[in-house]
Design brief:
single chain; alpha+beta; Collagenase (Catalytic Domain); Immunoglobulin-like; 6-stranded mixed beta sheet; 4-stranded antiparallel beta sheet; binds zinc ion
Length: about 400
């Protein structure tokens, strides 16, 4: 590695350290902080980064992007006992769906990518499924629910230096990973300041059983603007840096050719063109810090880097798609959430379906008092209570031949 590159990495580390201190409250993702913590006492960090780039570029261009691959994912969910919001099964399917849409450029809102960048949209060709494994002859599905009484459990560490997280260990009240060579582990728990974090390929050789991503449970709330953070963290897991290069300044790049240089991160949902470093900024990239409405795309270059990263560091993950739990939806209420507010019933499916879903609501005498549909492209259906008197009702959902009914009480 040349002296200049070496100095560049040292500068990055130093900047990052200061930067993180100043911006603790806006930290969407603690990936960078943790890398610093982990490597601040390791002299070979810059050597690792340089080798990493060499390895990636050696396979880049040879990666066949058209082959679809499927990777099993395990969700370890930690609801807090007294929390108002608790994650349920549909929230997990929604997260899986967001991942699959993001990694295949199949998200409905990808049409909002500006013309300047639409030609750069990348499809990684990766599918994610819910993993399964057989324990003592019994199939266990990779969605594991736990309850904790600890506030901000996903912020608790075994040691401050390496930022090893308790949530990843049975012995500390967490949940042990499933074999990280075969599954991607996703832990979901409460965090005070961050929306998520991820391990980076290759650097955690001592702690292979801790590889995976961690998501703040509050990202999954109904009105959250951070549901897509899971795509951002999965990007890190597959070797992507932040789009502005992890440190402010135009000299820091994300090592991807088709993402423009960007001075710093964006938050919220910017409107119109934004420029820095002499070019238009791609703030709608998943690897920026923008809200869901503005978080729309990976580039072709990022997709290629992800595939290269799998080839080098994560190859065993793609040899195991027999470990996928078949997604048979037997209960539509498993994928569609029903919320009741004072004056509203909301049905939220959070993703597109193959067909429209018919909605019917019956009163206790069996009379149909509401009928409508959730369009296949629609994600939220609000039904105002004004249609109903107090009482017990049955909400029926129908998709093709499959229908399910749930009882609700209107007060
Ligand atoms: Zn990040």
């Amino acid at each position: 590695m040349g002296v200049i590159n070496y100095m560049k990495y040292l500068t990055q580390i130093l900047f990052l350290f200061i930067f993180v201190q100043l911006n603790a409250q806006t930290n969407k993702c603690s990936f960078a902080t943790e890398r610093i913590k982990y490597f601040s006492n390791k002299s070979d960090y810059s050597v690792f980064l340089s080798d990493n780039e060499k390895k990636l570029s050696s396979v880049a261009g040879n990666i066949e992007l058209r082959d679809e691959i499927t990777i099993p994912v395990v969700f370890h969910v930690f609801n807090r006992e007294n929390a108002d919001f608790k994650v349920k099964l549909p929230d997990i399917y929604e997260q899986l769906d967001i991942l699959n849409k993001a990694f295949s450029a199949g998200n409905y809102d990808i049409k909002y990518v500006p013309d300047t960048f639409s030609g750069l949209v990348g499809n990684t060709g990766i599918n994610f499924c819910i993993g399964k494994k057989v324990v003592s002859g019994k199939v266990i599905k990779g969605i594991l629910f736990y309850t904790t009484d600890k506030k901000n459990f996903a912020d608790e560490y075994l040691d401050e230096d390496n930022k090893r997280m308790k949530i990843k260990h049975n012995s500390f009240g967490g949940s042990d990973s499933w074999d990280t060579d075969k599954y991607i582990n996703v832990w979901i728990g409460e965090m005070a300041y961050n929306n998520g974090t991820s391990t980076f390929p290759g650097i955690d050789a001592d702690y292979r059983n801790e590889e995976g991503i961690v998501i703040n449970i509050n990202n999954l709330q109904i009105n959250s603007k951070n549901k897509k953070v899971i795509a951002h963290e999965m990007g890190h897991y597959f070797n992507l840096y932040h789009i502005w290069g992890n440190a402010p300044g135009c000299e820091n790049d994300d090592e991807v050719d088709d993402t423009p240089l960007q001075d710093n991160y964006y938050t919220g949902c910017p409107v119109g063109d934004k420029f820095s470093c002499g070019s238009l900024d791609m703030y709608m990239n998943y690897m920026d810090y923008t809200d869901d409405d503005c978080s729309l795309m990976f580039t072709k270059g990022q997709a290629e880097r992800i595939r290269a990263s799998i080839n080098i560091y994560r190859k065993t993950l793609i040899e195991n798609n027999s470990l996928c739990d078949a997604r048979v939806v037997t209960d539509l209420f498993e994928v569609i959430k029903l919320y009741q507010y004072n004056n509203n019933i909301s049905l939220v499916k959070g993703f597109m379906t193959d067909d429209n879903i018919d909605v019917a609501i019956f009163n206790i005498s069996g009379q149909k008092v509401y009928s409508g549909k959730i369009d296949k492209r629609e994600t939220v259906k609000n039904i105002r209570h004004i249609f109903f008197n107090q009482g017990i009702y049955l909400v029926q959902l129908r998709l093709g031949n499959n229908y399910n009914t749930k009882k609700i009480i209107v007060f």
